[in-house]
Amino acid sequence: MKLKHTQGFSLIEVLIAVFVLALGVIGAAGLQLAAVRTTQQSGFQSVAVALASELADKMRSSDAVMKGGDATNPFLAINYNSLTDPLPTAPGMCFTSAASCNANGLAKAEIYEWLIRVKELLPGGRVLVCRDSVPYDAAKKALTWTCTADSSSGMTIKIGWKSKNPDGSFIDSNGTIPPSVAITVESYVK
Protein backbone atom coordinates (compact mmCIF):
# COMPACT_ATOMS: atom_id res chain seq x y z
CA MET A 1 0.00 0.00 0.00
CA LYS A 2 1.34 3.34 -1.05
CA LEU A 3 0.93 6.43 1.08
CA LYS A 4 -0.51 9.36 -0.73
CA HIS A 5 1.15 12.71 -0.17
CA THR A 6 -1.31 15.43 0.35
CA GLN A 7 -0.40 18.89 -0.70
CA GLY A 8 -1.11 21.91 1.43
CA PHE A 9 0.25 23.83 4.36
CA SER A 10 1.76 22.22 7.36
CA LEU A 11 0.92 23.41 10.84
CA ILE A 12 4.38 25.00 11.21
CA GLU A 13 3.92 27.07 8.07
CA VAL A 14 0.53 28.31 9.26
CA LEU A 15 1.94 29.29 12.67
CA ILE A 16 4.80 31.21 11.03
CA ALA A 17 2.36 33.06 8.76
CA VAL A 18 0.15 33.99 11.73
CA PHE A 19 3.23 35.20 13.66
CA VAL A 20 4.39 37.39 10.77
CA LEU A 21 0.88 38.80 10.36
CA ALA A 22 0.66 39.55 14.10
CA LEU A 23 3.98 41.43 13.99
CA GLY A 24 2.68 43.51 11.09
CA VAL A 25 -0.55 44.34 12.91
CA ILE A 26 1.33 45.32 16.09
CA GLY A 27 3.68 47.53 14.07
CA ALA A 28 0.78 49.21 12.28
CA ALA A 29 -0.99 49.84 15.60
CA GLY A 30 2.19 51.41 17.01
CA LEU A 31 2.51 53.68 13.98
CA GLN A 32 -1.13 54.69 14.31
CA LEU A 33 -0.65 55.56 17.99
CA ALA A 34 2.44 57.65 17.19
CA ALA A 35 0.53 59.45 14.43
CA VAL A 36 -2.37 60.25 16.78
CA ARG A 37 0.03 61.55 19.46
CA THR A 38 1.90 63.71 16.93
CA THR A 39 -1.35 65.08 15.56
CA GLN A 40 -2.52 65.95 19.07
CA GLN A 41 0.74 67.75 19.92
CA SER A 42 0.59 69.63 16.59
CA GLY A 43 -2.91 70.75 17.51
CA PHE A 44 -1.72 72.00 20.90
CA GLN A 45 1.16 73.83 19.19
CA SER A 46 -1.28 75.56 16.82
CA VAL A 47 -3.55 76.53 19.71
CA ALA A 48 -0.60 77.92 21.69
CA VAL A 49 0.62 80.00 18.75
CA ALA A 50 -2.90 81.37 18.19
CA LEU A 51 -3.26 82.21 21.91
CA ALA A 52 0.15 83.92 22.00
CA SER A 53 -0.66 85.92 18.86
CA GLU A 54 -4.01 86.93 20.33
CA LEU A 55 -2.38 88.16 23.55
CA ALA A 56 0.28 90.00 21.53
CA ASP A 57 -2.48 91.80 19.62
CA LYS A 58 -4.21 92.72 22.89
CA MET A 59 -0.93 94.07 24.24
CA ARG A 60 -0.27 96.18 21.14
CA SER A 61 -3.81 97.54 21.11
CA SER A 62 -3.55 98.70 24.75
CA ASP A 63 -1.55 101.82 23.98
CA ALA A 64 -2.30 103.54 27.31
CA VAL A 65 -1.23 100.48 29.29
CA MET A 66 1.97 100.07 27.30
CA LYS A 67 2.88 103.75 27.88
CA GLY A 68 2.34 103.32 31.64
CA GLY A 69 5.60 101.54 32.36
CA ASP A 70 6.47 98.08 33.63
CA ALA A 71 5.37 98.54 37.25
CA THR A 72 1.73 99.21 36.30
CA ASN A 73 1.53 97.00 33.21
CA PRO A 74 -0.87 94.11 33.97
CA PHE A 75 0.49 92.11 31.02
CA LEU A 76 3.87 91.84 32.76
CA ALA A 77 2.09 90.40 35.80
CA ILE A 78 1.00 87.28 33.87
CA ASN A 79 2.60 84.20 35.42
CA TYR A 80 0.00 81.43 35.40
CA ASN A 81 0.39 77.67 35.73
CA SER A 82 -2.91 75.78 35.43
CA LEU A 83 -1.42 72.70 37.12
CA THR A 84 -0.66 74.49 40.39
CA ASP A 85 -2.53 77.80 40.35
CA PRO A 86 -6.26 78.12 41.05
CA LEU A 87 -8.65 79.24 38.35
CA PRO A 88 -8.10 82.96 37.71
CA THR A 89 -10.61 85.21 39.46
CA ALA A 90 -12.56 87.78 37.52
CA PRO A 91 -11.49 91.37 38.03
CA GLY A 92 -14.18 93.48 39.68
CA MET A 93 -14.75 95.96 36.90
CA CYS A 94 -15.42 95.96 33.16
CA PHE A 95 -17.88 93.03 33.21
CA THR A 96 -21.17 94.94 33.30
CA SER A 97 -22.65 97.51 30.97
CA ALA A 98 -22.77 100.02 33.84
CA ALA A 99 -19.06 99.66 34.63
CA SER A 100 -16.73 102.51 33.84
CA CYS A 101 -13.45 100.98 32.76
CA ASN A 102 -10.04 102.52 32.55
CA ALA A 103 -7.29 101.11 30.34
CA ASN A 104 -5.80 98.93 33.10
CA GLY A 105 -9.23 97.55 34.08
CA LEU A 106 -9.99 96.63 30.49
CA ALA A 107 -6.57 94.98 30.09
CA LYS A 108 -7.14 92.95 33.29
CA ALA A 109 -10.56 91.81 32.02
CA GLU A 110 -9.04 90.73 28.70
CA ILE A 111 -6.22 88.90 30.50
CA TYR A 112 -8.74 87.08 32.72
CA GLU A 113 -10.78 85.85 29.74
CA TRP A 114 -7.60 84.87 27.90
CA LEU A 115 -6.24 82.87 30.88
CA ILE A 116 -9.55 80.98 31.13
CA ARG A 117 -9.09 79.90 27.49
CA VAL A 118 -5.50 78.84 28.18
CA LYS A 119 -6.75 76.62 31.02
CA GLU A 120 -9.50 75.14 28.82
CA LEU A 121 -7.46 74.57 25.64
CA LEU A 122 -4.01 73.45 26.84
CA PRO A 123 -3.49 70.52 29.22
CA GLY A 124 -1.44 71.80 32.12
CA GLY A 125 -0.98 75.11 30.33
CA ARG A 126 1.55 77.56 31.67
CA VAL A 127 2.02 81.20 30.62
CA LEU A 128 4.64 83.77 31.51
CA VAL A 129 5.01 87.30 30.15
CA CYS A 130 8.26 89.08 30.93
CA ARG A 131 11.01 91.17 29.44
CA ASP A 132 13.48 88.71 27.98
CA SER A 133 16.21 89.36 25.46
CA VAL A 134 17.30 85.68 25.35
CA PRO A 135 14.27 83.32 25.49
CA TYR A 136 16.22 80.49 23.81
CA ASP A 137 19.01 78.63 25.62
CA ALA A 138 21.49 77.51 22.96
CA ALA A 139 23.23 75.08 25.34
CA LYS A 140 19.98 73.24 26.12
CA LYS A 141 18.62 73.80 22.61
CA ALA A 142 15.27 74.77 24.09
CA LEU A 143 13.17 77.69 25.23
CA THR A 144 13.39 78.48 28.94
CA TRP A 145 11.15 80.06 31.57
CA THR A 146 14.06 82.16 32.84
CA CYS A 147 13.74 85.84 31.98
CA THR A 148 16.64 88.20 31.52
CA ALA A 149 15.34 91.47 32.92
CA ASP A 150 16.40 93.86 30.21
CA SER A 151 14.19 96.96 30.14
CA SER A 152 15.19 97.73 26.55
CA SER A 153 13.98 94.38 25.22
CA GLY A 154 10.44 93.66 24.19
CA MET A 155 7.98 91.66 26.24
CA THR A 156 8.08 87.93 25.59
CA ILE A 157 5.01 85.70 25.83
CA LYS A 158 6.01 82.15 26.77
CA ILE A 159 3.50 79.29 26.65
CA GLY A 160 4.00 75.63 27.53
CA TRP A 161 1.79 72.63 28.29
CA LYS A 162 2.07 69.07 29.52
CA SER A 163 3.21 67.12 26.47
CA LYS A 164 4.59 63.67 25.75
CA ASN A 165 7.63 62.14 24.08
CA PRO A 166 7.11 59.71 21.19
CA ASP A 167 7.38 56.80 23.65
CA GLY A 168 4.43 58.17 25.66
CA SER A 169 6.43 59.42 28.65
CA PHE A 170 5.91 63.00 29.78
CA ILE A 171 8.54 65.48 28.62
CA ASP A 172 8.61 67.17 32.01
CA SER A 173 10.20 64.31 33.95
CA ASN A 174 11.95 66.81 36.23
CA GLY A 175 8.67 68.55 37.10
CA THR A 176 9.12 71.52 34.76
CA ILE A 177 7.02 71.93 31.64
CA PRO A 178 9.30 73.68 29.12
CA PRO A 179 7.82 76.48 27.02
CA SER A 180 7.03 75.45 23.48
CA VAL A 181 6.08 78.87 22.14
CA ALA A 182 7.78 82.22 22.71
CA ILE A 183 6.72 85.40 20.95
CA THR A 184 8.42 88.73 21.56
CA VAL A 185 6.11 91.74 21.44
CA GLU A 186 7.50 95.14 20.66
CA SER A 187 5.38 98.05 21.75
CA TYR A 188 4.32 100.62 19.20
CA VAL A 189 5.32 103.19 21.78
CA LYS A 190 8.97 103.90 22.55
Tell me what you see in this structure.
This protein has helices at 11-61, 63-67, 103-121, and strands spanning 79-81, 126-131, 136-137, 142-143, 155-160, 181-185. It is α+β, with helices and mostly antiparallel strands and 190 residues long. Strands 1-2-5-6 form a four-stranded antiparallel beta sheet, with helices on one face. A two-stranded antiparallel ribbon has the order 3-4. Strand 3 and strand 4 (142-143) form a beta hairpin. Helix 1 packs antiparallel against helix 3. The radius of gyration is 27 Å and the shape is elongated. The protein starts with 10 loop residues before the first helix and ends in a 5-residue tail after the last strand. 23% of the residues are buried. The mean pLDDT is 83.
Please provide a brief summary of the model.
The chain is an alpha+beta fold and 190 residues long.
Keywords:
190 residues; alpha+beta; 4-stranded antiparallel beta sheet; two-stranded antiparallel sheet; 3 helices; 6 strands; 39% helix; 13% strand; elongated
